[in-house]
């Protein structure tokens, strides 16, 4: 029966010297102190494996953008032991039971970490939502603006109302890309200037969409989740909705918390995403929203593509694909910024582990260290500094705004159901991941 130990194990809400005992893939005992027979990691932090509920893997159909083998390998190296795949940009998009079954068929083997699946909401597919939920989809995502691909059309307020009634009956949440493209104008300014792109996606797009979602959640009772919040001006209405008892949750992403518009290099389209990275003051307000609890947790929104779509010769932000590749880098990116703001490791784990697990309905197994949970843990050194280099990245297309940046927080070891799947000196072991096809007690 394996056992691992450290002077800093995060369990029961605190860091302390502890030993974790594993058997049959579960945590069987959390022992105070360091057991003499345990494998000791010194004073490295041991906490629950991270849960990333917003990952675009794009398989089947666009595996050249990303695939499950490369994405889950990157997750494991980054300390993520569970992730949930988005319903696009795969072919077919996951908006029907048949499409979900096709995705399940290609993910039965070769996963490095455990994987769950969101279905998709598009106009007219309400009857498919319950079918996908019965098969194991953990929720369903809609776009309130153009998704970037024509086979995943946007949903109007009326479309969402119909879908939310179906989702409420199926007892799974709606996830929404909250931008409504109000009064679109032709961008003015050089297309390789980030300010030109930023002006084309104002905060009002997000704020208006979130107001619609709050109204619909109040009307239907369907739980709503706002994905990748970038507009800090939406925080007061979200806080008010929460106080009213409306079932609404919110996530944000490392790129909104670590990067700022003022420092985007001219023509460097690796920074483009939608909604966009905004100004420094907006970033500071998002951090306050996290610390105050208005924003529930942090996810990667890993959204890669092939280099020809992302890295354009003319540096045109308007034409480049909108998505940030960062799946492997969430922990060091967030910790590097969080530590300067006085955020504790205990709080960090809530944002990266327990709260996303609860949202996905898998908190009975994932996101926490306790007896009976899956023995999924990450061992990391919060003081280790390193430079993000392309050769270390495991996701398929290594285009990222984080390349060359110095960060703190090196993952040393990752464990999935009691087996070490990554160790910094030995590398990654063969895939042992499984499909997560149910919503447990949260």
Task: Tell me about the largest β-sheet.
Answer: 9 strands, mixed
Determine the CATH superfamily: Metal-dependent hydrolases
Give the N-terminus to C-terminus distance in angstroms: 28 Å
The helix tally amounts to 12
What is the CATH topology?
TIM Barrel
Strand content: 15-25%
CATH class: Alpha Beta
**CATH architectural type:** Alpha-Beta Barrel
Pairing-aware structural class of the strands and helices? Answer: alpha/beta
User: What's the average pLDDT?
Assistant: 96
Shape: globular
Protein model, in words:
The protein is α/β, with parallel strands linked by helices. The chain has one domain: Alpha-Beta Barrel (TIM Barrel). Helices cover 29% and strands 22% of the residues. It is built from twelve helices and 19 strands. The strands form three sheets. Strands 1, 2, 3, 4, 5, 15, 16, 17 and 18 form a nine-stranded mixed β-sheet that branches. The protein has a six-stranded parallel β-sheet with strand order 9-10-11-12-13-14. Strands 6-7-8-19 form a four-stranded parallel β-sheet. A hairpin with a 2-residue loop joins β16 and β17. α3 packs parallel to α4 and α4 packs across α6.
Question: What are its keywords?
Answer:
442 residues, alpha/beta, 6-stranded parallel β-sheet, 19 strands, 22% strand, globular
């Amino acid at each position: 029966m394996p056992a691992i130990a450290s002077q800093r194990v995060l369990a029961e809400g605190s860091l302390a010297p502890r030993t974790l005992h594993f058997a049959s893939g579960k945590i069987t005992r959390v022992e105070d102190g360091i057991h003499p027979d345990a494998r000791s990691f010194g004073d490295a932090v041991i906490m629950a494996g991270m849960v990333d509920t917003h990952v675009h893997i794009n398989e089947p159909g666009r595996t050249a953008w990303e695939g499950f083998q490369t994405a889950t390998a990157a997750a494991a190296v980054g300390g993520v032991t569970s992730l949930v795949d988005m319903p696009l940009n795969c072919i077919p998009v996951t908006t029907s039971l048949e499409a979900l079954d096709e995705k399940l068929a290609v993910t039965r083997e070769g996963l490095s970490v455990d994987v769950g699946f969101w279905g998709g909401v598009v106009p007219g597919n309400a009857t498919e939502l319950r079918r996908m939920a019965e098969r194991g989809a953990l929720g369903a995502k809609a776009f309130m603006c153009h998704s970037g691909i024509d086979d995943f059309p946007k949903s109007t307020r009326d479309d969402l109302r119909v879908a939310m009634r179906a989702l409420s009956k199926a007892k799974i949440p709606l996830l929404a890309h909250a931008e409504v493209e109000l009064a679109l104008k032709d961008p003015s300014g050089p297309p390789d200037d980030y300010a030109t792109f930023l002006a084309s996606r104002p905060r009002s797009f997000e704020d208006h969409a979130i107001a619609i979602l709050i109204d619909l959640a109040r009307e239907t009772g369907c739980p709503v989740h706002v994905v990748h919040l970038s507009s800090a001006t939406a925080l007061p209405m979200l806080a008010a909705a929460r106080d009213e008892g409306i079932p609404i949750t919110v996530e944000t992403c490392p790129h909104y918390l670590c990067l700022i518009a003022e420092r985007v290099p001219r023509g460097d389209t690796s920074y483009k995403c939608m909604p966009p990275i905004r100004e420094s003051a907006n970033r500071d307000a998002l951090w306050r929203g996290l610390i105050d609890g208005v924003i529930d947790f942090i996810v990667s929104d890993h959204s890669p593509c092939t280099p020809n779509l992302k890295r354009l010769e003319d540096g045109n932000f308007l034409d480049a694909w909108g998505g940030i590749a960062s799946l492997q880098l969430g922990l060091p990116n967030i910790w590097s910024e969080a530590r300067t703001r006085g955020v504790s490791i205990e709080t960090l784990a809530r944002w990266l582990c327990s709260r996303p697990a609860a949202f996905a309905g898998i908190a009975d197994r994932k996101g926490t260290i306790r007896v009976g949970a899956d023995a999924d843990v990450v061992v990391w050194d919060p003081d280790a500094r390193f430079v993000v280099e392309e050769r270390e990245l495991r996701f398929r297309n290594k285009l990222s705004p984080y390349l060359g940046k110095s960060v703190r927080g090196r993952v040393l070891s990752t464990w999935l159901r009691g087996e070490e799947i990554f160790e910094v000196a030995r590398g990654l072991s063969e895939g042992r991941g499984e499909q997560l096809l149910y919503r447990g007690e949260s």
